[in-house]
Design a protein that fits this description.
The structure is a single chain. The chain is α/β, with parallel strands linked by helices. Helix content is 38%, strand content 26%. Helix 4 crosses helix 5. It binds adenosine-5'-triphosphate (ATP). InterPro entries: AAA+_ATPase (IPR003593), ABC_transporter-like_ATP-bd (IPR003439), ABC_transporter-like_CS (IPR017871), CP_lyase_PhnL (IPR012701), P-loop_NTPase (IPR027417).
Length: 233
């Protein structure tokens, strides 16, 4: 069997509420799972069980209380829990993509450049990057007249589609998907399912949260149920 591109080991997370006299909220207590090339692991469990927290811990937006998050980066494992900030940024640039629920809008940057930017950062010539960005925006049914406009005034669904295009522009080996289909219509949901299938076919390892049951069934190679994990702990 091929080796995992992502391994989460004995991951713990407690939030400390400093404004509430240091009250501790335990969310994860020893979570472990790994993801191999071509897999899409779907995080399941009731609202509030910690699904988004897992993605944020893996991406390094939240600091784990204990445990390891090993990502295979340029052929060597990197533990994102203990890595220095520069290494975390390099892993994010080259290896670890994240499609969040909402687009972080940068003022005055055209939609096509928002999507092309991760590619340009990695050294792709701007015109080639914009061409790839345009193809993705087109697949996600963003009209060409919007390509040159900043997404600040786009609808919620349009912004989400720009965000998806940006997340899929570079073929990240590991990709985190936080409800990428939440405000999409059936046609665009189908396109996202297709993009995920294409990523599987090229050997990406993905972890996602999908509230839409049809999408979940279409893309999941395996479920990690955090409720069961918590009860077992
Ligand atoms: N920054 C934070 N500070 C304090 N508590 C937090 C923080 N982020 C999350 N939590 C708490 O951690 C728990 C898990 O939240 P999380 O958003 O991961 O759940 P979820 O399973 O993704 O829920 P949903 O399906 O509703 O999106 C919740 O009780 C939440 O209140």
């Amino acid at each position: 069997m091929t080796r995992p591109l992502l391994s989460v080991e004995a991951l713990e997370k407690r939030f400390t509420l400093h404004l509430q006299g240091g009250l501790e909220i335990p969310v994860l207590d020893g979570l472990g799972f790994s993801v191999r090339p071509g897999e899409c692991v779907v995080l399941a469990g009731a609202s509030g069980v910690g699904k988004s927290t897992v993605l944020k811990l893996v991406y390094g937006s939240y600091k784990a209380s204990a445990g390891r998050v090993l990502v295979s980066h340029e052929g060597a494992p990197v533990d994102l829990v203990s890595a220095d900030p520069r290494t975390v940024l390099d892993v994010r640039r080259r290896t670890l993509g994240y499609v969040s629920q909402f687009l972080r809008v940068v003022p005055r940057v055209a939609a096509i450049d928002v999507v092309a930017e991760p590619l340009v950062t990695l050294g792709m010539p701007r015109e080639e990057a914009r061409e790839r960005a345009g193809t993705l925006l087109d697949r996600l049914a963003i009209p060409e007249r919007l390509f040159s406009l900043p997404p600040a005034t786009f609808s919620g669904g349009e912004q989400q589609r720009v965000n998806i295009a940006r997340g899929f522009a570079h073929p990240y080996p590991v990709l985190l998907l936080d409800e990428p289909t939440a405000s999409l219509d059936a046609r665009n949901r189908a396109t996202v399912v297709q993009l995920i299938e294409e990523a599987k076919a090229r050997g990406a390892a993905m972890v996602g949260i999908f509230h839409d049951e049809d999408v979940r069934e279409a893309v999941a190679t395996r479920l990690v149920d955090l409720t069961a994990e918590r009860m077992a702990a």
